[in-house]
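Support request, please re-run this one:
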Amino acid sequence: MTVNGVLPVVKPRGMTSHDVVAHIRRTFRIGRVGHTGTLDPDATGVLVILLGKATRLMQFMVTLPKTYLAEIVLGITTDTLDASGEVLSKTHEAKVSKERFLEALSHFQGEIWQVPPMVSAVHHKGRRLYELAREGIETPREPRRVHIYTLTVQAWPNHEVLTFGDKVSVLIECSSGTYVRQLAADIGERLSCGAHIGSLFRTKVGDFDIDSCYTLEELEEADGDGSFPDKVLPVSAGLSHLPTVTLTEDERDAKRRLSCGTKVDAKDLLQEVKGKETEQLKDSGFINVLSSSGDVICVAKREIIEGEVYLQPIVVFA
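Re-run finished. Output below.
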């Protein structure tokens, strides 16, 4: 099957993101399949799948912000920082008031530094950290800067003071690269009682929310009745977060040059930028270039050469 586009999927519990990609490739007979951001096997929720030519969107989508509903379990730490791991410690005498819990959350809002957990896919000397962790090897990791836009309580137990084993549901809106498991562990450490993630549900990736996603069962049914292609969003859906230039019918020469990967004079084109914040243009950000019919021609970058402004195609789709 030849399909090019974006497919928002609900990742089920127990499958890795790679498992979902392999399942879609095999079930729907599609050669090129990728995804825009890994979810842990125990995590569920939004997984944005890219099909065919749309796999080339990955570099422009991996940095999209994410939203999660996370269940934090108080007083228990595990070696994987979630419920699937072996228990490392228990603090039976844990007692945390709501005021103290909220104060701890406030410490992790905004721009923070986070040390990637050993149970992560970060590379160290050619190997993934989780591979080293399985062998009992722990190595120093450099902290990374991430941004927590929102960190709020969504559900609290029916008593005011948290004790051992209590679960609190929190909403987390964060930048790409944030490790939610590590965030829960760090919150537990600040509360001096430890904590881990009981469950994790990703509700949004960029503009893709859970309501726009299909389960694997729904997609298999659609394959059976021939409606599967109707579930796939166009390539342009994966670029809605970028500033956009739409070429008119009279700009055929610019379209031809961009389609060939050749830079074009952008002085007049950039006056037609629509969509997201045009401040990105000042920072030489990526620009989505569409034809008059709405098809993606290319993703380009603004360049200044000898005082003149150009659009230089980075990836061509036409």
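The radius of gyration is 23 Å. Residues 5-64+206-236 form a domain with the Pseudouridine synthase fold (CATH 3.30.2350.10).
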